[in-house]
Amino acid sequence: QNMLKIVRIFTISLLILLLSCKEESNQKTIINENLKPTHNDLLNADLYFPKDYKLTSIDDFERKLSESRSNFEITQVSIGSIEKMKSISHLTTLYTDSLNFENYIYITKGEFVDLNKNIATQYSSMLNNSVESNWANNGINFKLLENKYFQKNQKKFVKIKYEQEFNKVKKYLTQYLISGKGKTFSVMVCNFKNEDFEKELKMLKLK
C-alpha cells in the first residue's frame, strides 16, 4: 500500500504525454554549460541546472500549453494531467527552459522512504506498468532506455529513462526517485535533447 501511494504521487509528471508534435525550434538550450546554482525552498536544497531553466508556475505552464500548436488530442490529455499537478502544487516545483517551455524539470516532494534495491525494483515495476497502460492507450510509442539504482554523496537514486515518440517526434523523459537526509522526492526531466541531468542531480546539496 505504501508503494502504491508513492507511485501515485510520483507518476503524475510521467503521465503528462508528449506535449508537442512539432520539431524543436532552431534555438539551442545550453546544456552542461554555465550551470547556475538554484536554491529550492521545497527541498531546502541547492540544485544545479543550466541558466536557461526558470522557475515556472503550473498556471503559466498550462497557459503556454493551451496556446501552443501541439496536437489537440495530446494537448487535451496533457491538460487533464496538469489538473492533477495543481492538486499537489504545494508539494511541487517546476522549472522550464526559457527557449522552449516543453523542456522542463518537475520536482515532487513525498513522504520519506529509505530506498534500497528491493524498493527500487518494486517502484520500477509499478511505474512501468502505469506508463505502459497510459501511453499505449493514447497511441504513443515508447521504449525503456535505462533503469537503475545507485548511491552517490549520501543520496540514493532510482533512475528510469524513456524515449517517447508520437508522429515521428521523439522526446526523452527521465524519472528519478531520490532519498537523502530524511527526504524523498522525485525529479522528472523532460526534453527533446536526450539530456537527463544525472551529473547535475548527483551534485545537489540537501540541507
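That was protein one. Protein two is written in the same sequence-then-structure order:
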Amino acid sequence: AQASFRAVATRGDRSAAFSSKSCSSREPVGLDALCVVNNLDGTFGIKFSFSQASHHVVTVFLANSQTIVGSNFTVSVSGASVSAATSQVGAPAAISSVAGEAIEFGIVPLDAYGNDPSPAAQTSDFALAAVLSTTSDFVSVSGTVASSASGFVASVIPEVAGVYTISVHVAGDLIRESTLTATVGAAAASSTGSTVEGEGWLMGQID
C-alpha cells in the first residue's frame, strides 16, 4: 500500500524539515513539500519542490520507521532566474542631489523565492531611467548599472534641476518599491556654462 512509505527532507542547515504526503502522479506537489506516488506497477516515486537554494537530504522510511537502505540522498537546489518581485533597491524613497552629479544606489538581485539567482544576474538584466516631472516638457535620463563586490550599483546623472521619478526594471518588470523621488537642485555658476548677453561696447570716433 502507498501508506507503507513516507519520506522526510531535511534542509542542509537543519533549519527546516518536510514530511511527505500521498499524491497522484498528476497532482501538483506544492511548494516546500514532498509526496509519495504509487506508480501502480509495484514501484513508488517521490516528488518534491523546495524554495530555498540549499542542499536537502531526503530519507525514505518504511511503516515501522526503518529507513530503506540507500535512501538518504542529497538534492541540491539552486536559485531561479532574477525576479523583479523580490529584488531590492538600496536607496531612500526621497533623494536630494545637484545637477550634474551622479545619483547612485545599490541593487540586490534575487530570484522569486529570495535566493541568489541562477544564472547569476547580469548588468544587462536591469534598466534604469529618471523622468523629470516638474516641467511641461518630457525629460528622461537613462542610467547605467555596474557590477560591484556586493551586488550592483545603479547610477544616473540628471543635468536639469527639478524633481525626478527614478525607476528600475528587470526584464521589463518594475522592481517592487524601486520607484524613487529625486529632487535635483541647480549647480553652482560655471564660467564655462555662463554667457553674457547685450550689445557690448560701441566703438566710434568723436570729432
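The mean pLDDT is 85. Keep this in mind for the problem set.
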